[in-house]
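Hi F.,

I've been meaning to write this up properly since the lab meeting, where we talked about keeping a consistent format for the predictions we share between groups. The idea is simple: the sequence comes first, exactly as it goes in, then the structure tokens exactly as they come out, then a line or two of notes. No screenshots and no reformatting. I'm using this chain as the first example so we have something concrete to point to.
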Amino acid sequence: MDPQTLIAKRIAQELKPGMLVNLGVGIPTLVANYVPAGMRIYFQSENGLIGTGPLPEEGMTEAFLTDAAGQPVSALPGACTFDSAVSFGLIRGGHLDVTVLGGLQVDEHGRLANWTIPGKMVPGMGGAMDLVTGAKRVIVAMQHSAKGAPKIVRECTLPRTSSRPVDLVVTELAVIAFEDGVATLRETAPGVSVQQVLDATGALLAVPGEVPQMPVVSNP
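Output, unedited:
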């Protein structure tokens, strides 16, 4: 199983029926593909859509139906659209149950950096700051390292998105929670040892006496 699929499948297990969930750009968009059949999750796109479904099949895209990054999405029966003012009212008003975002770095206290790299051209911060601040639960989907450097670090060297800590980070190696500001190893990926996770992490991790492996589920 490729790393992105593993991460998306594991995060899909965190969702419960009836939740209002925002999916960010990149790996987070894959989460909708792995929601169990028959479970109704209301996926929200910050550009003004509730009711997004799995990524559309080739040839089935609509130019006017996109996510906040301009990528094609599908719309489930009963989906609704609205302007960005209403969309950000939902986000800032605390109505989102979960947001799933990509990450550039997460520090050992759970603070996220994901909106810019100094010196590189970016289109803007998007809704990341609002989402991290406003959602009831924040999950980060990202690979454990980039170009051999850990992405879970003692302190973020990139500009932080919010002072609020995230709740959970899921990588291709581990599931890490941030309870009371402490990075805690909750699960390891199949075939990955605790020591391998520690060696690949640039932050201090609390390790319980027993660390289970991520449950692996088949496609819905």
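Notes:
The two ends are 15 Å apart (CA to CA).
The longest strand covers residues 75-81.

If this format works for you, I'll send the rest the same way.

G.
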